[in-house]
Amino acid sequence: MTSKLLLSGVATCLALAGCGNGGTAASPQTGGAQGTGGQQQSGGSSGGPAGSGGATSAGGATGSGGASGVGGGSASGGTVGGGGTTSNPATGGMTGSGGRTGTGGRTGSGGRTGTGGGTTTASGGATGVGGTTAGSGGSSAADGGSESDGGVTVNCEAEMPTGGNTYTGASVYGTINGLNYGIWTNGVGGTITVFPGVQAFAASWDESLNFLAHLGLDFRTAKAYTEYGTITANYVEKKSGTPGGFSMIGIYGWMHNPCIEYYINEDSWNGLYGRGSITAVIDGETYYLSTASTTGTGGANACESGHTGPWTQLHSVRKTARQCGTVTVSDHFKAWEAQGWTLGSLRSVHINVEVGGGTGSIEFPVAEVTTTSQ
Catalytic one among 147, 237, 354, 368? Predict the structure, then answer.
């Protein structure tokens, strides 16, 4: 549907009636990714085996401070309280108020022994900020565990739901669970399966040339991305088969006025490509940013009415491919804008797969797109 100058081998979208809003070349898509969160709280084992403080607390063996924490082994006032050995159990008697272990006793706040001791270990305990295993990035990486970015945890071992609805064709679009789904191809067609009550989908293709399938959000009003607050996408994907000449898995969508087609590439069958020379760190990973102009029928079909001629493509390509995670989509928009690249009104944010033929399938047991403001 669209010829892509940045991606070698990307097929040109044919000027078909089905080339609606979106597609690499014109899939009417709009949607994107989300999620934030971390399994492990910063601060680790706060206080640890030996916190600030040491083996012997300030104050000495007898008297105020005592043998253990502030207040000592005998109550404040020493072994013999003010009032003498034989005083009535009066003030400061044999065992004064405060008991055998004074304030800050044998196990002081933050450490093994009361504050002020002779041996110190920095506050924060045995394990510093960031937790025992993986700091603010969660307990394990994308493959095989759970990934968190800023508050939402993605279960990377999620299984596909059952009981979905499958649609077949070259141009299919609909709405489910508050999200928009669709497939487009200029080949022989493909399938998409969506699930009532679950934000997940699956797709398959068989020599469909340029094939796209998505689930995400379409925006019907002309607003800048900043008006939607934080836009995030959570996804888990499992792919099989072959993608033909090219493949891109991640976040995809369009903007209007000016006409912009954008990609956030997280994974593929045959290596992440199309990297630019500009980098930005987003969600804790390096992305390569690039922009170019392209032509075809996609801009006329996916952008505002009356658009003709070329349009702009924006790309963020992840340094390391992954199959599970959270994408803060709005941070990619900010990164592009920081380069001086003009952005239009946001029309779509989709979790998307695009392939250049072949025969294969993909499952997204998690495919969630959210905004913090509408």
Answer: 354
